[in-house]
Amino acid sequence: MSSDWITLIPEKAGTVPDEPRRFAALKRFREIAPDAHEIEVILLEKMTFFDCGSNFISVKCPACSVEIPTNDWQDIMNTDYVDEGFMLAEYSVPCCGNYFTPHMLFYEGPQGFGLFALSARNPNIGKLDSNHKREMEEILGIELRVIYQHI
Ligand SMILES: [Zn+2]
Question: Model pTM?
Answer without folding.
Answer: 0.96
